[in-house]
Amino acid sequence: MSKKFRYLGQTAAFSLIYILTDQISLAFPSSGPLETLIFPATAVSIAILLIFGLRFWPSVLIGALISALIRDYSQQLAFGLSIALTLQTSMAAYLLNRSKAFKLSFVSAKTVQVFTSATLISVFIGATLGKMVIDLSPEASILDIGIIWSDWILIYGTSIFLITPPILIIYANRNIEWSTHQLVELLLVIGVVSILSALIFIELPNPAQFLPLTFIVIPLLIWIALRFTPRELTVSSLLASLIILGGIANSAANQVILSNLQNEKNLFLFFSFLAIVVLILLIISTITMYQQTQTLALAIKNDELVEGVQARTKELQIANEQLAQARDQAVEALKIKNQILANISHDARTPLNVIILYTELLKENIYGPLSEKQRDKLSTILASSHELLRFINNLLDETNLNSDQVSPQFEPIVVKEWLNERVNLFLPRAKRDELILNANISLNMPERVMGDPIWLNQIFDNLLDNAIKFTENGRIDIIVSANPNIDCWQLIVEDTGIGIEQANIQKIFDPFWQVDGSETRQANRGVGLGLSIVKQRLDILGGTIHVENKQTGGSIFTILIPFVHEWETSRVSS
Predict the structure, then answer these.
(1) Is 302 helix (H, G, I), strand (E, B) or coil?
(2) Contact 489/471 with Cβ under 8 angstroms?
(3) Where does residue 132 rank: exposed (0-12), middle (13-18), buried (19+ CB within 10 A)?
(4) pTM higher than 0.85 for the full model?
(5) Distance CA 218, CA 215 (A)
(6) In this structure, how many other beta carbons lie within 10 angstroms of the beta carbon of residue 517?
(7) Is the pLDDT of residue 370 over 90?
(8) Closest by alpha carbon to 271, among 279, 370, 543, 210?
(9) 8 Å CB contact between 86 and 60
(10) Secondary-structure breakdown of the chain: helix, strand, coil percentages, each rounded to the nearest 5
(11) What is the pLDDT of residues 265-298, one digit of tens each?
């Protein structure tokens, strides 16, 4: 119930506003058939329907009917005109409300175009209905119907163009504030516009003579359009228009102007021209405002980007400081770790070498004869000890490689003796695992090579250790040959084991990386350093390692080591 009373109260209030604004129009009388130079009631009602909703259209009907009766029109004419004015007002509001391009704030030129089109359509419909109503009314005999139709379009169109936009724009932009210098500038320009309009149409003795001075107002309006928003422009234009209308309607010079302009039709055309100028300036203002808004948005975005870059830079600085601190801590921890590993490796190798020495002495019958079973067990102990020693050496070498404290020490190596020594070291393991271990030296291989025996031992031992570890049955072939085309000698270790997945071939050279899978877990007793050390040693020597899988199963490891001549050993070692 309260909503219904509220609606009725608002409708009554809007009807009263219509009546009051219609009475204001009587302050601008005209000798023409429409009695006034401006109809603000329709323009204000369009703004009300757009702001509060089309459901208040009855307020227009009631206000128009009461206003017509106050003007002492016949009941037939009063009812007819109220219906025509209601349809005209509602049509304009409906067309604007339906358009997605129309915005109350007039923020784009498209809004001005839509507003102009809706206004012209509605006043054309209103003029046509008004002409029909008047033609059927008792007043038709004393009125010129043709003049009424054209005057209706001119006066109502001009009124809507001048009055409706400032109301809508002020409502939509009611929160906009001016700075002090903007307010001073605006008041100054509006003051000059008002004074010029008053001088031309009120104070001058013969306004018709100074009518061209009206165009002085246009540059000032252009200034407002470029410097301020559509709100200030439309208010200034409306103020200037009201002053001009008031001067024409009420000054003693009214008849002089009318006679100079030949007839009142020319006067209406003059005001239509003024309305068109205001619309053009409104388009200019919306375009300027849009550009200013875009510039402001770009400036804000730029400021946000600058702030973001500064914040990001600060974050990166903090992150870099933290990374530097973490790096220093990691370097210090690595040094401590390397030192600990070096100490452990050194302390572990000493007793292990003693175990290996006494095991070898026992095998040589130094302490008395041994049975075959005892000798076999000693071989197992010796092989396991060498395997453990190789693991300790790998761990120590990994520490030394990380600290860049290693360089090869070259000396002549008899290839056949070196190969037999290394193979014999692994024979007990191969025999235990029932593997065939075969080694060959090609005829093109030199008898001697220059190399670091410790490094070559590590490279060979790690390759052969891996081959035995991942081969359950079958054989392991070792081939040493020369490759004179590239001045290198090569070592090939070929097994019949489980092979390596293609995706893991590059990973096997990473430190501490181990092949995963249930079929390898038992065999994989190391920590993943062997092949990493092989790769690092070869990189220092200028060699390469290549891995491929055989189609019949197993892997082939091929290493290439450049020949080092005696005159190069000092340079390479340094």
Answers:
(1) helix
(2) no
(3) middle
(4) no
(5) 5
(6) 10
(7) no
(8) 279
(9) yes
(10) 70, 10, 20
(11) 555 556 666 666 666 666 766 766 666 677 777 8
Two tokens, residue 219: 């540059």
Single-letter amino acid, residue 91: M
What is the rounded distance in angstroms from the CA atom of residue 399 to the CA atom of residue 300? 56
Distance CA 558, CA 448 (A): 20
Two tokens, residue 96: 């604007």
pLDDT at 160 over 60: yes
Instruction: Tell me how far apart the alpha carbons of residues 311 and 308 are, in angstroms, rounded to a whole number.
Output: 5
Pairwise CA distance, residues 523 & 469, whole Å: 6
Closest among 76, 68, 88, 77 to 15, alpha carbons compared: 68
- Higher pLDDT: 5 or 383? It is 5
Integer Cα distance of 490 and 484 in angstroms: 10
Q: Concatenated DSSP letters for 181-201?
A: HHHHHHHHHHHHHHHHHHIII
Residues 115/96, Cβ–Cβ less than 8 Å:
yes
What's at 285, amino acid-wise?
S
Partners of residue 29 on adjacent β-strands: 36
Pairing state between β 488-495 and 448-451? unpaired
What number is the average pLDDT over the span 488-510? 83
Q: What is the token pair recorded at 97?
A: 């409300």
Residue 433 burial (CB < 10 Å; 0-12/13-18/19+)? middle
How many of the other CB atoms lie within 10 Å of CB of 216?
15
